[in-house]
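Hello,

I think I submitted the zinc ion job twice by accident. Can you confirm which output corresponds to this input? Input:
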Amino acid sequence: MVVSEVKPDVGLEYPGTWQQFRAWFGDEQACIDYLEQLRWPDGFRCPKCSGEKGWRLSDGRWSCAGCASKVSVTAGTIFDGSRVPLADWFTAIWFITNQKYGVSALGLQRLLGLGSYRTAWTMLRKLREAMVGPGRGRLQGTVEVDETYLGGIERGTRGRGTECKFMVAIAIEVLSPKGFGRVRLKRIEDGSAHSLTAFVEYAAELGSTICTDGWKGYAGLAKEGYEHHAVNISASGDPAHVAMPGIPKIASLLKRWLLGTHQGSVTAVHLDAYLDEFAFRFNRRKSRRRGMLFYRLLENAVVTKPKRFRPSRASLMPSKHNL
Ligand SMILES: [Zn+2]
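Support: Only one job matched these inputs. Its output is below.
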């Protein structure tokens, strides 16, 4: 196996171009080395006994001197148990973070020359999970909250889609004097106080100022420990986009993105993952270097516990609704 000559300084340098990416991660060993530096910046650490002494085995794993565990650098990460080489995972992460609209499962299958659509689909599913990350903080300061509807397709038993709509709650940080910070989005069952309060608790820190319209579903927020600022839009005389400018902007970006990448039609289970991907991209829109996004996603990927996920047959059909 050829070992890459170029050793990037993990966390300080990010690949800037595809050429640089290829030079850094040209073979499997280079990817393993990079992951090891990311996971164990101060050297090997056993996940079982926290021992710091160990040696590398010929198959790439580490043997712990303390408890004799055989440890793979991918253990406990989203790459755990995957038969896809790390080099292909790295390439997938590079493309998902470098394409403006991300990459579809079909596109990824072609790009990596994968034998099965299911493999590509599962990789994307895991990467979207990593986009959420384990330690993601909630929004703070002044936060606009509102709901919007998105069109979707639910598959019937005969594979025929039935039109339906999903309600999506949106929260966005409003920065002063102007501009916007991070977003959180989530599919909600309905516009009830129960659903909306649960969303605000998911999206924003207690004590934040939550700006909403006058809908009664938001009336209980002050009781839950938020500063609640309800804008009575009809009484103020301002149209909604003047009173709360962030939400319509996000809603239209989201719809355009879904339309561009996913033809606007998604199933409920996909939508949740797409909303996380949208937030990941939007929240890092000011990153000047795309390589930084690559690094952030990889960083999340090594601390995101692998989840067993059994996709439905319908969701594995490479149709325009399951891109
Ligand atoms: Zn150990």
